[in-house]
Specification:
Blueprint lengths: L6 H4 L18 E4 L15 E4 L9 H6 L3 E3 L6 H17 L1 H7 L10 H8 L12 E5 L3 H12 L3 E5 L5 H6 L5 E3 L11 E4 L13 H5 L5 E5 L8 H10 L2 E6 L12 E3 L8 H21 L18 E8 L4 H11 L3 E10 L2 E9 L5 H8 L4 E6 L1
Parallel strand pairs: 1-2, 2-3, 4-5, 4-7, 5-6, 7-8, 8-9, 9-10
Antiparallel strand pairs: 11-13, 11-14, 12-13
Helix pairs in contact: 3-6
């Protein structure tokens, strides 16, 4: 089942093997963009959900995990699109462009006086250049690292912070970016701060009265990650008091719309045809590899896992508890199967085991014996 997904991606499905439709009943897999799935009932045959984008707030991930449904996202596929909008937001925060564009139409009826009125009124929209200023980037993943690198090319000084910086992100990051352990180390010097954090219980309201108080006066804050990262009430007070000069967000809501100093963009971060195509292609390829081979890459609820097999591949989603692996292998051995190869990976409370079984057929009785083990969630034979 697909929900408004670019055909550039879904064309990868072999129509001799797959029925691709937005109205399919009891699908084996789902690709979704931003449609909410929290009220959906999932069939027992649903193997996976792929989110064509990075955020999975529209998917009940915890419930999916309990049911043995692998949830994928597509990190980095829309990174360039978001990066470009962040840079636009950086300029919008400085030069009061949006206010100026709103003001110009008011001169429509002034006839020959427009030129003089423009010259007289333009000073109210003056703003600083970004060259030579300091940008603090919180979160140096696929998007944050790209933003940091571009800001350097624009002549800015860049300080970044990411306690979970991956090897790939570190390799992408320019050595000219100064990395610190916590954002507290650059709050007092950053003229601009760009948020690139995931949203979770720990990061909700990450920008609030306390963190804003540590920042430089007239700081400009960019939020193209998640609206909930910022406490809106505290932000409004900071804007009204002059502590924050401008807040640019890609996540408008009734509380911040119309507030002086807020530039609200209607969630356009990934709204480019290139981004939609990239996300669709990545989501489709990840689903195909999981459905046909059992391999996992970019899952938010299960560990990455990849293994080739010479015999029958048995893929098992289970709880990450002691002795469960020994029970699985004992069950297979007791039914005359030999384990040629095995891979076990865990992610918090859950794990994924892939077994290359030889020496006989993997019968329904064998699968039933594995399913009977306490902690087993889903067993699949490929």
């Amino acid at each position: 089942m697909v929900y408004k997904i670019s055909s550039v991606g879904t064309d990868f499905f072999d129509r001799n093997l797959y029925n691709v439709s937005s109205t399919a009943e009891n699908p084996d897999a789902i690709i979704v963009r931003s449609a909410s799935m929290h009220d959906m009932a999932f069939g027992s045959n649903l193997l996976a959900i792929a989110r064509a984008g990075a955020g999975v707030n529209n998917i009940p991930v915890d419930e999916c995990t309990k049911q043995g449904i692998c949830v994928f996202n597509t990190p980095g596929a829309n990174a360039n699109a978001v990066k470009e909008l962040v840079i636009a937001g950086l300029l919008l925060s400085s030069r009061k462009i949006s206010e100026a564009l709103t003001w110009v139409p008011s001169l429509k009826t002034e006839g020959d006086a427009v030129g003089k009125l423009v010259e007289k009124g333009k000073s109210q929209f003056a703003g600083p250049e970004i060259m030579g200023k300091t940008l603090g980037v919180i979160g140096l993943g696929a998007i944050g690292s790209m933003v940091a690198n571009v800001a350097l090319h624009l002549g800015m000084n860049v300080v970044g912070c990411d306690p979970f910086l991956s090897v790939n992100s570190a390799l992408r990051l320019s050595p000219k970016v100064k990395c610190v352990k916590t954002p507290d180390e650059f709050y007092s010097e950053a003229d601009y701060i760009s948020l690139h954090l995931p949203y979770n219980a720990d990061t909700k309201g990450f920008v609030n009265a306390e963190t804003i108080s540590k920042m430089k006066d007239n700081v400009r804050i960019l939020n193209f990650a998640r609206g909930e990262l910022v406490n809106d009430a505290d932000m409004i007070k900071a804007l009204e008091g002059g502590k924050v000069a401008c807040y640019v967000t890609d996540f408008p809501n009734a509380e911040i719309i119309g507030v002086k100093g807020v530039v609200a963009i209607p969630h356009l971060g990934a709204s480019t045809p290139e981004s939609e195509d990239n996300c669709a292609v990545m989501a489709t390829k990840q689903l195909i590899d999981y459905i046909e081979n059992g391999n996992i890459k970019n899952s938010v609820n299960l560990p990455d896992a990849e293994m080739t097999a010479v015999g029958t591949k048995i893929c098992i989603i289970h709880k990450n508890i002691p002795s469960i692996i020994s029970q699985i292998t004992t069950s297979l051995a007791g039914n005359g199967l030999n384990i040629e190869n095995m891979l076990n990976k865990s992610k918090k409370d859950y794990a994924y085991t892939m077994i290359d079984a030889c020496g006989g057929n993997v019968t329904d009785d064998i699968i039933a014996s594995i399913n009977a083990i306490d902690g087993i969630i889903k067993v699949r034979v490929i």
